[in-house]
């Protein structure tokens, strides 16, 4: 049984064998993974020790105190938060051994090929086709959209339709797609901020070996639910200090610019500050629940609150700044590796937050999930659940 004392001992041994000041970052991270200190709740040999998830904090604290490097989790968010738990749950031993170490170390960035132009909110309606050839390989054709980090990703988690003759949820299969394979084309999507952190991805006769299928044929929707649940937890339940995130900059401006204050803005800021703090504490509670098992649908509620709060707080910040809030520092077309909400000014935060209610599941879909699967309310009538995908109106 691995306990806190054992993890402290192992952490000390890692630091002694690989002093952070004298060890290249990648080498240190590889050694940490091999020592089972990457994610301690994963199995031995896969970056963990089979320890309680709650004990990860013991390792993280010891490494942080020694100045050890991390693996830049914001840059690797899709791989760490979505691909890794799905591969762990449904992958073969060969897949786990091949993908988890370079994913965690940061040698391979991941993206997510789920949404399509005609299948965003209704993801199960996706039309990207994967057809199996006699040799066992799958040939994939279709288009994906709103793909974060596709321009820097080596691998992608991909869902495609493998059987159009059954209802839409039943005919989907989950794959791991090499973004460097012939037939994969990534095009930037310029956003309202001027940047293009999103992309559209065209798949033309892309060959995927059956060894890179995750889960059973036709079971992709169930596999994808693991990914989506983890995605919403990653977006809405990220760990923040008090006044972390969007509430931080507007609170700082309020304190430093008393000439901008009004009674009405004060009341609104107080309300949003309390809501942001409540959301932060709810996220802490959700992470404590994760210690006992896989994330539930509570992540959908957290992601809902994250989107609404970001949009309301950024709107208040622009109002507080008055004419200054209308300024925008840079419309340069860039393709960043990650979103930086607090590294730019108020105008950027205001524009970028508009996407929060779309990405990672639209707020409308998440409201239905919370209503049906958390509150137990009756679902809306659906006429397409038992109809073959090929017979659906499109």
Biggest sheet statistics = 4 strands, mixed
- Shape from CA axes? globular
What structural category do the secondary elements indicate?
alpha+beta
Rg (C-alpha, Å): 22 Å
Distance between the termini: 55 Å
Strand content: 5-15%
Helix content: 40-55%
**How many β-strand runs?**
8
- Along the chain, the helix and strand elements come as HHHHHEEEEEEEEHHHHHH
Q: Counting H and I runs of at least 4 residues, what is the number of helices?
A: 11
Strand order of the largest sheet: 1-4-5-8
Low-confidence stretches: none
The mean pLDDT is 91
Describe it.
With 394 residues, the protein is an alpha+beta fold. The chain is 40% helix and 12% strand. It is built from 11 helices and 8 strands. The strands form 2 sheets. A 4-stranded mixed sheet has the order 1-4-5-8. A 4-stranded antiparallel sheet has the order 2-3-7-6, with no helix packed on it. It is globular. The chain starts with a helix and ends in a 20-residue tail after the last helix. The mean pLDDT is 91.
Summarize this structure as a short list of keywords or feature phrases:
single chain; 394 residues; alpha+beta; 4-stranded antiparallel β-sheet; globular
Structure at a glance:
By secondary structure, the protein is α+β, with helices and mostly antiparallel strands. It is built from eleven helices and eight strands.
What's the arrangement of secondary structure elements?
Elements: H1 4-17, H2 25-34, H3 56-65, H4 77-90, H5 93-105, E1 110-113, E2 129-132, E3 138-144, E4 155-161, E5 172-178, E6 184-189, E7 198-208, E8 213-214, H6 220-236, H7 247-256, H8 263-290, H9 298-321, H10 346-352, H11 363-374
Parallel strand pairs: 1-4
Antiparallel strand pairs: 2-3, 3-7, 4-5, 5-8, 6-7
């Amino acid at each position: 049984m691995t306990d806190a004392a054992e993890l402290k001992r192992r952490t000390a041994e890692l630091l002694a064998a690989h002093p952070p000041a004298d060890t290249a970052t990648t080498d240190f991270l590889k050694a940490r993974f091999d020592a089972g200190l990457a994610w301690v709740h994963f199995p031995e040999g896969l970056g963990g020790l089979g320890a309680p998830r709650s004990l990860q904090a013991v390792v993280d604290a010891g490494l942080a105190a020694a100045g050890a490097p991390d693996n830049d989790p914001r840059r690797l968010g899709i791989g760490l938060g979505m691909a890794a738990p799905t591969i762990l749950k449904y992958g073969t031993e060969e897949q786990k051994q091949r993908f988890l170490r370079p994913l965690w170390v940061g040698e391979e960035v991941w993206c997510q090929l789920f949404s399509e132009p005609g299948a965003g909110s209704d993801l199960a309606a996706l039309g990207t086709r994967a057809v199996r050839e006699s040799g066992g390989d799958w040939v994939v054709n279709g288009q994906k959209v709103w793909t974060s980090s596709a321009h820097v990703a080596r691998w992608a988690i991909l869902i495609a339709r493998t059987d159009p003759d059954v209802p839409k949820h039943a005919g989907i299969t989950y794959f791991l797609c090499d973004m460097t394979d012939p037939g994969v084309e990534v095009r930037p999507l310029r956003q309202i901020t001027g940047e293009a952190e999103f992309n559209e991805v065209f798949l033309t006769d892309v060959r995927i070996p059956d060894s890179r299928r995750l889960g059973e044929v036709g079971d992709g929707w169930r596999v994808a639910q693991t990914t989506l649940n983890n995605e919403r937890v990653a977006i809405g339940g990220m760990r923040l200090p008090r006044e972390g995130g969007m509430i931080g900059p507007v609170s700082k401006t309020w304190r430093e610019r008393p000439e901008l204050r009004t009674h009405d803005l004060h009341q609104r800021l107080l309300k949003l500050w309390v809501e942001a703090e409540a959301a932060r504490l709810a996220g802490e509670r959700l992470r404590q629940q994760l210690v006992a098992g896989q994330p539930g649908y509570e992540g959908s509620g957290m992601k809902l609150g994250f989107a609404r709060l970001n949009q309301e707080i950024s709107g208040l910040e622009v109002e507080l700044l008055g004419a200054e809030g209308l300024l925008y520092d840079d419309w340069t077309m860039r393709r960043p590796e990650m979103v930086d909400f607090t590294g730019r000014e108020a105008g950027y935060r205001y524009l970028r937050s508009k996407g929060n209610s779309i990405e990672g599941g639209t707020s409308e879909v998440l409201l239905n999930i919370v209503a049906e699967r958390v509150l137990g309310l009756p679902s809306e009538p659906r006429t397409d659940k038992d109809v073959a995908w090929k017979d659906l109106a499109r």
